[in-house]
Structure formats: C-alpha cells, structure tokens
Amino acid sequence: MPNIVKGSRQDKMMVVPYRPTQRLFWLIGGISLISLGVIGGFAFGYYQTHKTEGSFLIDLEEQGATLESLISENIELKRQVTMLERSGVFDQKVNETGELTISSLRDQLATLEQDLIYYRNVVSKQIENTGLMISDWSLKRINQSNRYRYKLAVRQQDADGDTYLSGYVNIDVFGKQDGQTTSYSLDEISEEQEQNDIKLRFKFFQYIEGELTVPEDFLPDYVRIVGTETAPVSKTIDRDYSWLNTKD
Predict the structure, then answer these.
(1) pLDDT at 147 > cutoff 80
(2) C-alpha R_g of the chain
(3) Are 196 and 185 in contact, with CB atoms under 8 Å apart?
(4) Distance CA 36, CA 41 (A)
(5) Residue 160 has what pLDDT?
C-alpha cells in the first residue's frame, strides 16, 4: 500500500485500458488532417496567387498594347510635325532660293543685254565699213523719150581679191499713175532683167545696166535700191534716189 502523507492534496487516479493500436491510429489521423489542411491551404493560396498573377498578366498585356499604341501614335505625330516643320523650312528655302535665282538671272540678263547691244554696235559699225556698197547709180533719158538708160555700180569694200561677195539687188521705181501711188520693179520695165532679184557675185565690182521704159501716164518720183549680201557677211543696204536727178 502506498504511503500517504496526511494533509497533502490527493489526485484521483483513473485506470485506462492500454490500447497502443488505437493511439497510433489517432496519431496518424491527426497528422493526416493537419497535412490535408496544410495542402488545402497551400492549394487555395496557389490558386489565388495564380488567379491574381493571371489577371495581372492580362492587365499587363493590355497596358503594354495601350502603351505600344500610344508610342506609335506619338512617333507618327512627331513624324508629321517634323515633316511640317521641314516642309515650312523647305518652302522658305525654296522661296529664298527662287528669289535669289530670279534676282541673279535678272542681273545676268541685264549684263547680257548690255553686252549684246555693245557687240551689235561693234558688228554694225564693222559691217557698215565693209562688204556690199553702192558705188554709183545713174539714169539718163534717151532722146527726149520715155526711155532711160540706167547703170548701177556696186562694190565690195575692203576686198582682199580672194573672197567673192554673193547676194542680190532689187531696183524699183515709185511714182503716181491715175492718182495712185504705184511701183514697178526693174524686170517689169527693162528687157535686160529677167527677175526681180538681180544676182550679185563679184570680188571687186559689178555693174548692172540697161534700158528701161516708163509706162504711159506714169510719173516717176524716185528709185529705191535694196541690196542684200549673203556672203561673206550678212548685210542689207537701202537707198532712195530722186527721179529729179535724172539727166536728160
């Protein structure tokens, strides 16, 4: 019999049957429940995390697409602005260049016109002093009739003796007939001439002579002689000779 000290607390004792198999079952069951709880919690947390992550990725993709769209729009706007700015600058440069070009061309044109006038004067003076010249024109009446003898002498001034002068001459008589101003070419009133353009070809001198007949009722006033040189230079001379100077 166990020793009991008088006056101390005495705990009640209960006799429990010894069942080691049942204790092991409950231990395994508890561990399983805890494990299932942990696994379930982990699975739920993973699901929530995955769901949140998926939503985040979707939002991120949408935001990325929006950002790309905004970036593209911004680039396009910048490109348009740049084009407009360059276009404005280009137009300005074109206008400035155009004005400078036009001004430069005007200056060049003015200079060229002055040079042209100068050279024309020089060439004109040189031509006047060379080439075809009228040396003499004479018209003499034959026996108080309406017939006249004419003689034209043309020459090549500054002739070198090697160069031929080529061209033609026209002789026309102007006057009044039946109250009208009328003209006759030399080939119409002179048998010696067959055409209006009388050919010229000589080195020093050439004479054109013959007889002409004044038509009835025609009152001669003057004779016009127009000579055209075609080679070696281009030159035209124009002279009028009064009929009053005709020798009877």
Answers:
(1) yes
(2) 65
(3) yes
(4) 8
(5) 81
What sign results for the dihedral spanned by CA atoms 175, 211, 148, 241? positive
- pLDDT category at 117 given cuts 50, 70, 90 is low
Q: 167-215: per-residue pLDDT in tens?
A: 999 999 999 999 899 999 999 999 999 999 999 999 999 999 999 999 9
Using CA atoms, how far residue 99 sits from 93, 95, 105, in Å, is 10, 6, 10
Which of 143, 122, 132 is closest to 169 using CA atoms? 132
Asked if 200 and 152 touch (Cβ cutoff 8 Å), the reply is no
Three-class secondary structure of residue 38 per DSSP: helix
Q: What is the pLDDT of residues 57-73, one digit of tens each?
A: 455 456 556 656 666 66
Nearest to 192 by CA among 228, 223, 150: 150
CB 238 within 8 A of CB 181: no
Q: From the centroid of its chain, how far is CA 201? A: 49
Residue 190 near residue 211 (C-beta atoms within 8 A): yes
**Spatial distance between the Cα atoms of 119 and 109, rounded to a whole number of angstroms:** 15
Residue 16 three-state SS = coil
- Does residue 182 contact residue 175 with C-beta atoms inside 8 Å? yes
Strand pairing category for 218-231 and 205-213? unpaired
Integer Cα distance of 37 and 28 in angstroms = 14
**Higher confidence at residue 161 or residue 148?**
148
Measured at the alpha carbon of residue 81, what is the angle toward residues 80 and 87, in degrees to the nearest 5? 85
